[in-house]
Predict the 3D structure of the following.
Amino acid sequence: MTLLDRPFAIGNSQTQDVRRWVDEIAALTTPADIVWIDGSRAEAHRLARQLVDEGKLIRLNAEWRPGSFLARSDPADVARVESRTFIASEKEEDAGPTNNWMAPDRMRAELEVAFDGSMRGRTMYVVPFSMGPVGGALSKLGVEITDSAYVVLSMGIMTRMGQQALDLIDAGEAWVKAVHSVGYPLIDADGVTRPDVAWPANDTKYISHFPESREIWSFGSGYGGNALLGKKSYALRIASVIARDEGWLAEHMLIIKVTSPAGRVFHLVAAFPSACGKTNLAMLRSPLPGWRVETIGDDIAWLRQGPDGRLWAINPEAGFFGVAPGTGESTNPNAMETIWGNTIFTNVALTDDGDVWWEGKTKQAPAHLIDWEGNDWTPASGRPAAHPNSRFTVASAQCPSIADEWDAQNGVPIDAIIFGGRRASNVPLVTEARSWSHGVYMGATISSEQTAAAEGAVGELRRDPFAMLPFCGYNMADYWGHWLKVGEELGGNAPKVFNVNWFRRGKDGSFLWPGFGENIRVIEWICNRVAGEAEAVESPIGSLPAEGSLTLDGLDMTKAQLTELFDVNPKAWLDETDLAEAYFQQFGDKVPKRLRAELDSIRWRLRE
Ligand code: GTP
Ligand code: SPV
Ligand code: MN
């Protein structure tokens, strides 16, 4: 269908807005044709077939993995590019020292050059979508224009995509503009054509955000958060700005429903940096009798105070874009069941019988594979078969542990907020904040070892406040202030706040805590604390489980290991406060006084 034969209601200003904008982008990028996406299954089927014909997707063996495909990206386009992610706010201080800022005028000028003719010879897709259930109380709308059919298919899994979203836009709802181009036109300015490639991309990349006009412009990458613009660009960077203005929170958090043996239900959210275990915790299968975890979201939560005064959350997404390596029957059986079929895999290895494999899927690697770059691979190859940031894209509804209320129009009421990072030392298995503002301090001082989810040296320690370092659309210190303000509004209804660390290592370098399913023991303690049924003891950095309050039966742990797991070393923690203070310094007077007071209070307690 072309632009001109799409029927629309005459006199409907919103539709005309979308059409005008589509015309504008088409005039700039000059695609060969324009397709409006309706979100039907027939359409997804057509696009998948087309991608297979073009050599951009490999159809997996339907006996093992029905309706599923493998995509192999350009080896230079495998993760989010934080160095090319921009916040083009009018004032530089509104982006803050942790974001790349560019003046909006200059950004627009550069984007105009990049996007000029960038879709020549390609189809431009118009993708209307809803973040959150269509018409939901906390949901928001957007339209992504893209020249990648892989992105359209992925958006169809990750969001509520299609006509229903456009109908709401037609009805006058606000919507966000997102423009995406892989930056690989098939015809140059002189009219010379070139063949397409399996994963078109451009060496020059921009993932640009205009917080004031609520616009997203992404160029040069087809991968994950760079290209599926409903995800990090909208649901976190732009939404965090909307949330600041409207008094709610847009967070890099999983959401779970936990049911106790007595049948009491708790809803928890947890913020961990990229590739630090959100999907694993979101799909936890409990080995503790009577305790049950159900999945609501694995990456993003939108939280808002409800009419009852409590904090309510929705998962704005409709699918999982999960890290494949390390996902197996023993670590995440629910994820393994979720991806039984109808899944797009990106940058994993291909088995000889047309299925997928990655490190950690099975204990033993197959004798022969085609690796993520399309080369022969054997266990003797000495390199990973799947890229460390390889991913699966699959609908949430396929998850066997999905909670009934995962797509509830009003979301779920939150009982506890958990922060965590990947820390080999110092940080205990679990700590409870003394207050909301102490909790905000915990969130603001998350640090974690760098993972493969973004470019950079894996393993290096980096500060990642609220796991939002690459995702906060405005000044990080203002964001801390906003969290304090939300806490004041919530008052006595505010959820309890905790910090966890599954990744502490012993002197021999091995993990002190078994992790994965066994994390239910920590979740149990947290729920029991919320219910007022577990004891805690004070420490300078927060409350720790009192002896006997954390269920450890059946775990193969020595007393010495347990001591190490919970050790709070005053000297090491004074160093941590120095690091936090130095980190705060770069934000100048924007750092809320309350946070500095929390830091002083911890120092004072450590010196006692
Ligand atoms: P994004 O999708 O990038 O935001 O990340 P995520 O937080 O959802 O990442 P995910 O859950 O996929 O994290 C995967 C990594 O965390 C793998 O390397 C897992 O092996 C590791 N992991 C998850 N849970 C645990 C745990 O309890 N203990 C240990 N040691 N590793 C864990
Ligand atoms: C992350 O990096 O936190 C992700 C993957 O969830 S991406 O969508 O690519 O940002
Ligand atoms: Mn994430």
In short: The two ends are 72 Å apart (CA to CA). The domain at 250-319+405-607 is CATH 3.90.228.20 (Phosphoenolpyruvate Carboxykinase; domain 3). The first helix runs from residue 13 to 29.
